[in-house]
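Homework help thread (please don't just give me the answer)

Our assignment gives two proteins as sequence + structure token strings and asks us to describe the second one. The first is just a warm-up. Here they are:
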Amino acid sequence: MIEFKDVTKVFPDGTRAVSGVSLQVPPHRTTVFVGTSGSGKTTLLRMVNRMVDPTSGSIEIDGVDVATRNPVTLRRSIGYVMQNSGLLPHRTVADNIATVPRLEGTSRRDAHGRALELMDLVGLDRGLAERYPAQLSGGQQQRVGVARGLAADPNILLMDEPFGAVDPLVRADLQHELRQLQDRLGKTIIFVTHDIDEAFTLGHQVVLLRTGGTIAQRGTPAEILADPADQFVADFIGLNRAQRRFRLETTPRGTMVIDGEDRPAGYLADGEGSAAP
């Protein structure tokens, strides 16, 4: 488990990025930090692997304060996936994925074999192994980034807006694939996004942050939708948007879900609900 204990971060220029955050990140689940720019979500994530150190408070992993850990050793034990993948342009796909195992002393042959296995896991054709990042699509690059983050088989995976730079269709595919990976691997994931729909799609726990780095609300997507803490939360999650308001309509094919703009959103599975009166 990851635990933030009364964490505050004030940068040298006086910017207060995080203010008194206390939070538990449960193991083997996905926790999503969501908020606008300046809400401290990326700063919180980077405190876990000591890319940023808190001004006060502490972050513990399984009861051990990360401040007592060697930063390099700590970072190699935690997977990290960033926006635009952050791949090394002069290295092949396989070599990019194998970066951390090679640094940890794994033989080139074994690390390459592990890279190929991870390419299978994230849905990449092994024929891409000897290509360079510039020869890949955006979605392929992000899959390589995820594979590299998993290469050392970490218990914790940090993901900083990893799907923000790809088009909506690819983004939806990557979100679906990440959910499948999490179901299979059971990692402890912290995922950062500014997109509330992405947060609700991926998060077992969603932490909604205000500007200045305070927690506005945390809970499951269903809990937040059912009972927003205040007007800020209601506005942020778009509770009054047409896309969040639905009705049911009976059709010859079954029960159709219609959104607030009278657009069909899909059909209920057999036996789920009934048409609105």
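The one we have to describe:
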Amino acid sequence: MPPPAVAVSIAPELRDPAWMGRVFWFLAALALLAPALVLTEFRPWTMLEPDALRSTARFVGDFFPPKVEPEFLLLVARECWRTVAIATAGMALALLIAIPLTLISTSVLSVSALPGRMHALPFLLRQAVRGLLIVLRSVPELVWALVFVRVVGLGPTAGVLAIALTYGGMLGKVYGEILESDERQATHALLRNGAGRLQAFFYALLPQSASELTSYTVYRWECAIRSSAVLGFVGAGGLGQQMDTSMKLFQGAEVATMLIVFMLLVGLADAASAWLRRVIA
């Protein structure tokens, strides 16, 4: 005869009162994810089919050995430097776009808002500027590059302009959020005592947030280097354009060399970015 079942009680301090909620949201996430996977035709198991494996092996096999002729390495080094130049020039133009728009859209620098509610005209102006920042950052740099390639032709100019517009919108938005989250007392005190907006910015807002602003800018420069390589695939110059040409010509050895160089470039940019953020912290 089996022994009688023993009821197991869990001590109140060991119960998790939120477990039902977690299970509910987990199941809800699965219910939302399943249609998305069906809609995107996500079938990774097709990569394990014999034909796919043979094509993959042939494609990867073309990458070895990488091409290391001095003349080709010199070409890769030149395009690599051009990629960094595109990113840096694009970031410089992005700052020229972002800084004025940030100062205009930041409500903490509004004199009309000192008594309480901001006046209608300054409020509408700030909303219009914020709308412009939304437009700039909502269009990916790849789309901007496609537009500018048709306007100015193939080459780095299209990449510089694409990065400038998209990153200008990103920087303006984040700069504004950083400034709005700072302590406002010193800024308002300067404005109430007759200081101009730029004086209040340089002597009150900027000292509080200079480290955070610089850190984010350096991080965005690192991202711009990666973006400039991707933009080359649509004709915006740099290492990406040379890689696209080699891929179209089925020169796997050249692609392998450029991939290695690009990974080293991103690693160096990441290290430089981390070092700069530590220095300015």
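TA reply:
I won't write it for you, but here's a hint about the kind of observation we're looking for: The two ends are 73 Å apart (CA to CA).
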